[in-house]
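Ticket opened by: R.M.
Priority: normal
Category: complex prediction / small molecule

The reporter submitted a protein together with 2'-deoxycytidine-5'-monophosphate and asked that the result be attached to this ticket for the collaborator who will pick it up next week. Submitted input follows.
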Amino acid sequence: MNNLPLPPVIAIDGPSASGKGSVAERVAAYFGFHYLDSGAIYRLLAYAALRQHVDWSDAPALSTLASQLQIRFEHGEAWLQDEIVSTQIRSEQMGKGASEVAVHPAVRLALLQTQRNFRQAPGLVGDGRDIGSVIFPDARLKVFLTAAVETRAQRRYQQLTQRGEDADYALILADLQQRDWRDSQRTVAPLKQLPDAMLLDTTDKNIDEAVNIIITAYKKAAQID
Ligand code: DC
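Result attached by the on-call engineer:
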């Protein structure tokens, strides 16, 4: 046992397509911190389940799979065992799958330590739904990053069309609304703004503005000049 203080954590939670990922990655790069994309872990589980014909509603089989999951992130790529699956897990289907597997308490428990292991010196920026509430309740700074659902749907639509993928705005909007509902209504670790979290609504803000607000807030919280 040592009594060294644990590395600091910045927790950025919020709904789907709020821009958490891009913002969190840039804040992490600014401070030289590690980055945890917890949604990617749920997406990897949904993808591994699909491949192994495990149903997204089968909690016992999913939690066994979750406890054996061999995943890693390297140079911006997500690996499942010895394969890069970054593109596959970013699909809308895996977003939906992640949201479905994430409702099971046993699955969340099986993935708890996997996420806590990302807390390494000199610090960590984690994004997800329960980073500030369950994974790192002692986070130095907690941010609830959100935007109007129509704005998030518009951003997702642009992202998909820029990648040359087919996209239907109305379908994206309906899917986001359904995911918001599932993520915030589940019994375990629902998405919600914590009383000790700073609200950051990016409906009228770009990424640079959001990143700067978080950097300033963290410097204040950590008393860095
Ligand atoms: O952030 P994302 O869109 O990649 O997350 C995909 C799904 O994973 C999301 O709809 C709910 C689930 N999730 C979760 O339950 N808890 C987290 N900390 C992160 C994601």
